[in-house]
Structures are given as C-alpha cells and as structure tokens.
Amino acid sequence: MLQTAGCYRCLRTLEDKEQVVDGYIQWYFTYRNHVSFQRFKDGLATLNFFNALEQHPSLFLPYMVYSAEDLKAETLEALFRPQMSPTGSSNRQEEERVLGYWLDYLIAVKEEGSGLSLQDVLMFATGLKEIPAAKLIPQPQVTFQKHSRFPEANVCSNTMKLPILPSYEMFEEAMNYGIKNSPGFGLL
C-alpha cells in the first residue's frame, strides 16, 4: 500500500516515519478519492448547480449536510398521519379521544422520566432511531384498534395501531408496556 501511495522509502529517522505516515494519510483520504470527488463535482455542475452552491453555500447547507436534531413531540405529531373513521360515526368519536391521548402521550414522554424517549417511540413505529434527512416513505400513519390492549406496529408500512382504551392512564400504561417490551430488531 505504501508503494501504491508513493510513500515507500527507507526509514532512517523518526522524522522519516512521520513523513511516510503523513504522505500515506494524504494519499488515502485525498488523492485516492480524487476521481470520485471530481465526478461528484461534474454531476453537480449539470444545470449550473455547482456554481449556485459555490455562490450561496449557506442556502444549500440544510440540503447538503445532515445534522441530527433533538426529536420533539410536535415533530412526531406532524410526522404521523391519523387514519380515522368517517365523521359522525361512533368509532370516529373514540378515535378522536384516543388521538388526544396519543398527543398527550408524546408530550409526557418528552417531559417525564418514564424510561422511554421519543426515539424509542419512533423506533417502535418505523424501525428508525431518528428521522432521515430525506423524506420518510411511506409516510407514517396512526390507525386504531379495539382487539388489543397494547400498541402494534408494522415497520414495513410505517404504521402504528393505537389501542382504544377508556382512560388516558390505561392508554399510557399500555403504550409504555408495549413499547418497552417490543424487540426493536434486537437493538438496545
């Protein structure tokens, strides 16, 4: 590898060793990938995107550089689209009540020390620990179920089924138990 990098030489002093290491690191991280960087720049140059990027780097920063941000209850609320029964049905009234429980639950998880985090809720529903920079496909959904006391999730379709329970306390207890006891793909 040192010969390929052009750094192979006889070492006589400690400085020679440092020069070899510096030369190899420069080759490994810069010169070895030069062709890839050039092709990337050429691709960005189509439609003058590279020129716009050079002229206005701060405008493109959120699109070109990923930065993980702290997950908020409002973010999760906006991420999950509720699938509800038709307006006026008895199911719709129960679903609206449980949807209120869901929103209160997200706020409680963020504020209280229940042993869960919003990342745990997201992981349970989607299999992801954080929201990706690109759009999450398919869009996460919240549906409702009467046949189980605990929440269920299908991470392939990004769907979480919330249990229809009579009180917030029962809902919170069931959600905490269901999420804490889910396998989570073996990730802790």
Automatic annotation (TrEMBL):
Pfam families: HECT (PF00632). This is HECT domain-containing protein. It comes from the Eukaryota. Residues 13-188 form the HECT domain. The active site is at 156 (glycyl thioester intermediate). PROSITE patterns: HECT. SUPFAM superfamilies: Hect, E3 ligase catalytic domain. GO terms for molecular function: ubiquitin-protein transferase activity. InterPro entries: HECT_dom, Hect_E3_ubiquitin_ligase. Keywords: Transferase, Ubl conjugation pathway.
